[in-house]
Amino acid sequence: MKITKNMIILMLISLIIFVGVVLFKDQKYNLVIILLVTLSCLPFYFKYEHDRPKTREIIILTIMIALTVISRIIFMVMPSFKPVTVMVIICGIVFGRASGFMCGSLSALISDFVFGIGPWTPFQMFVWGIIGYIAGIFSKQLHNDKHFLYGYSIVCGIGYSLIMDLWSVLAIENSFNFTRYLAIVLTSLPVMLIYIVSNIVFMFLLSKIMFQILQRVKVKYGITEGKI
């Protein structure tokens, strides 16, 4: 039942982004962002209704979002080379898919107050949210198999680049043109490579220590969601 609710939310998010780009022609992106934020919170609300998470769990999620935002700001001078994706993956693995989605989605929005909010923001919210959500689904495999973990990090770098390239072509033509999309993908390959390398580097540097610290936090405060 929980998966069904979350899948419905993800489909609604995809529909809202489509409507915002195609029908509103990126002129109503503030409304789209508000709707996305609301939908991004629903999985955690469902979790609250089902599991009754304590205040400490909400605070820990808030701290994870804050750390993710800070990690993006710290590396502001290094375009595309940032630990955001890795932080979102780790959050999803340790705390579950609902927390992973919220961490990715809200981190994108909050950090864009520094980097600039625009019609690209809903796409960032969506892709980072999905990255955290999927990490929560495969949490045990990602935690126990380092090859799977690094492989997923690479896939996330590729996926993030492809989805942001999708925004680029839609922003240019207000419709999808495969030829132009392919051209944009090819010209952005160096940026995609940076995404991939940064994910591997930060996963290598952060995953072990973050897993240890966050697992201690879960045990100390009795958090069971996303148990690995």
UniProtKB/TrEMBL annotation:
The keyword Magnesium does not apply. Keywords: Membrane, Transmembrane, Transmembrane helix. One of its GO terms (cellular component) is membrane. This is Energy-coupling factor transport system substrate-specific component. The keyword Transmembrane applies. Gene3D superfamilies: 1.10.1760.20. Coiled coil: none annotated. It comes from the Bacteria.
